[in-house]
Amino acid sequence: MNLMLSAPSLLEKIAFWVLAGGVLGGALITVTRKSSVGALMALVATFCAMAGLYATLSAHFLAVLQILVYAGAIMVLFIFAVMIMNRDEENPIALRGLFVRTAGVIATGYIFYRAAWIVVHERQTDVLATSATLPIPNYGNVASIGRLLFTDFLFPFEAVSLLLLAAVVGGVLLSRPSRPADGGGAV
Amino acid sequence: MPGYHYILVSLALFFIGTAGVLLRRNAIFVLMSLELQLGAGSLALLTFARGLGDQRGHVVAFFLMALAAAEAAVGLAVMVAVYRTRKQIDLDGIHELRN
Question: Which domain does A162 fall in, by range?
Fold first, then answer.
């Protein structure tokens, strides 16, 4: 991608539109599908296309992590959950309080329409216009992100690792079948 | 491509996720829509990081990814526990925490 950053070339445009269409189409299929497994596969496709978008933003490390973590680990977790409670819905859209929910969706749609209008209106600013060259030579690769993670963001990094540990232990504790005999204290 | 294209994709993705959270009743679909919303957030973060030439946006997106993993683990564990006792995961049919 480094060779194509001088101007939005035809190849870059094609890549962007294909990936953006994949992201939005996959998201729509995910939200509207009846069967859980079909929605999960659409979600995997969405995350793979999103990793491609990250790569076109020259965030290579995050693109690889997106494939590994989202399309790998989190999706396996979802597949196990679907295996445990696989129930296709008869009517996927909730009927109770449908008016309030639809009003909420319309209101959010209006908010996002206004936000999109602002973004289009401000598209000539430096942040939103195209950046012709990479800001620094090895922008977004593993070495520079890793150096940032282990210097400036060392404490948040360790805190996030503790958060993940707490979440996994909590998940095991929640989903374990409760046995009243052991008193629940010993893990 | 200009950055505002990416921001528009991110906005549309977040809107689809919001509609999924509001309209679906199956808890698994709600959790998947939440993942879509988090992905839209990190797409916007990476776009602005590219526009500003600041790699700290990548670090925040990395933390967001870890947060999404933690959220999926805890949310799915809660849903498995609810399913074990109630035999359903329809969010409209679960009133245990009301009142």
Answer: 141-178
Q: Mean pLDDT check: name the lowest of A129-138, A142-151, B21-30, B33-42.
A: A129-138
- What stretches of chain A show up as alpha helix (H) in DSSP? 10-32, 36-56, 60-65, 75-84, 98-121, 142-151, 154-175
Inform me whether the C-beta atom of residue A89 falls under 8 Å from chain B C-beta atoms.
yes
Q: Are residues A67 and A25 in the same domain?
A: yes
Closest chain A C-alpha to B13 CA, distance in angstroms: 6
Digit-coded pLDDT (tens) for B49-99 = 888 888 899 999 999 999 999 999 999 998 888 888 877 777 777 766 665
Among all residues of chain A, which has the CA nearest to that of B33?
Answer: A31
Tens-digit pLDDT profile for residues A4-24: 445 677 888 899 999 999 999
A104 with A130, same domain: the answer is yes
Residue range B3-87 forms a domain whose CATH class is mainly alpha
- Which residues of B fall within a CB distance of 8 Å from A40? 32
Helix axes A75-84 and A36-56, enclosed angle (nearest 10): 170
Yes or no, beta carbons of A160 and B11 under 8 Å apart: no
The total of structural domains in chain A comes to 2
